Amino acid sequence: MNWDLFPQFLATGLLTGGIYALIALGLVLIYKSSRVFNFAQGHILMLGAFVAWWFTENLGWSIWLAFGATIGVAVLVGLLIERLALRPLIGQPILATVMMTLALSQVLQGAVILFFGANQRSLPMMFPLQPVILGDVRLKLNLVLAFGMAMLGFLLFVLFFRYTRWGLAMRAAAEDHQLAQSVGLRVPRIFGLAWAIASVVAIVGGVLLASISGVETNLAIIALKAFPAVLFGGLESIPGAIIGGLTVGVIESLVGGLPQDAAFRALHLGDIAPYVFMLLVLLVRPDGLFGLKRIERI
Amino acid sequence: MTWRQGESSPCLPFSLSPCRLKCMLKLNNIEVVYSDVILVLRGVSLEVGDGQIVALLGANGAGKTTALKAISGLLRTELGQVTRGSIEFDGARLDRLGPEDIVERGIVQVLEGRRLFAHLTTEENLITGALSRRNGASVKRDLEMVYDYFPRLRDLRGRVSGYLSGGEQQMVVIGRALMAHPKVMLLDEPSLGLAPLIVEEIFQVIKKINQQEKTSLLLVEQIAQAALGIADYGYVMESGRVVLDGPADKLRDNEDIKEFYLGLTQLGERKSYREVKHYKRRKRWLG
Ligand SMILES: Nc1ncnc2c1ncn2[C@@H]1O[C@H](COP(=O)(O)OP(=O)(O)OP(=O)(O)O)[C@@H](O)[C@H]1O
Ligand SMILES: [Mg+2]
To answer: Looking at residue A142, what is its pLDDT?
Structure first.
């Protein structure tokens, strides 16, 4: 690597990592509260990008209005998915929920193509495109602001989780469903809330990404970046989601930035590296870097 | 003292019934089945009067916890079902309701084994007990109430509850139940695994809660003497049935209970209550 470019790749990696972190947060949240791994997370994100596009294109809304409305749609989508697809599976083997979220991903993909078409679209820009120059590092302002939004979303969630009644209910239910029911918490509603929030963060990530790189069905693949991020950070860890997301972004950017000849370039090492790294981490720490330690006291 | 045989237990004589004034909770001959095949309760009837402490005693596996879960509705989280009989609370049927609705109506179960939200702090655990209530306003006042009952918890409020000592954890789970302002608290073996001194302390607080908050209690215990010490009335279960019941002071003096719970006969072997009962019946015949 050309070491002069190191800070540049590092910074770019962190910026994309911020969005991965947001998507990872959704995965962690659903897993933590209901032990369901949501393979459809990327497809929810893609759906959000198309819905936002539809609002701007067909209703003529500004991107920010469309963004807000799409968040509303996200809440509905999350609640509906939980109510119709996952709630009937409560108490069923884990495989049933895995198959269900995989099926969901296909249904969402089909629905998007059916309603919005498979063409690539573009969203109006959310942020101006000027470059930001910090010493040797040149960054695009829209990436920096999108990162800022992602982190703001993350922060809002953490505050909600820590300091509100609903957040407390979610943390309690995440630990022990039966115990939560014994103190009168309505656990299925809490699952619904987790899905709603997870959809919102996915869709916020989706709209941010799409306003930078366009709206297309391929957006769903971005979730493949969030998977190593959550496994790396620990499936149940919220700090793990952010660290995992940023790490994946940085690794991808640094490895992608290595000088390579054409044959290597075709391998897309930058895409593969996070997985290799994740495998190594899992070999040493099977619960991920921040996997929850069970508190055992005899 | 009322003797019972199997399911055809006679009605309690009015004067001896725990519901002398007003019946809070009433189990009418309930049968409980797990996973559609495992019959665990075979016709259990019991009553808890308004403001009373009722002890539910019995050996391991007798079905005490199952009886509590039938009342609190948690049975369904373990594929259990009330297949016969009915459960009445404040005049309404409970056995069709989910656990959350039952908590809202005023019955809270404190689960066996000091079950905490281990990663939450002491105070957060306590607050979860109040989440089911509609008005969040009085949470602060209720926390103070719990800290008055268990002063030790005040200093531990910010601690991660999973690392508290066993006695402290037991205080947290009772305090958490108290936060819901229950009319009836179902307590499952609060003495489990605790040193005698702490057990004594906790039982005193239970009695105090009963007197000051007017909370009725159904108290499952292995340490019969301690439970009968604070209870008004007691039931003894064996193999899914109530085999003996009566006012607590009468049960306390009962030789069979002593023998059964102290556990050792002269030969040094454990006896089943059934054997004691046979022995007693024979004695009565012969006498
Ligand atoms: N979820 C379940 N599924 C099947 N059987 C169960 C279940 N829970 C309890 N049982 C069985 O029901 C019987 C009564 O159990 P229960 O826990 O009610 O007894 P207990 O009186 O509380 O005993 P202990 O004093 O040991 O706590 C036991 O034989 C137990 O194996
Ligand atoms: Mg038990």
So the answer is: 85
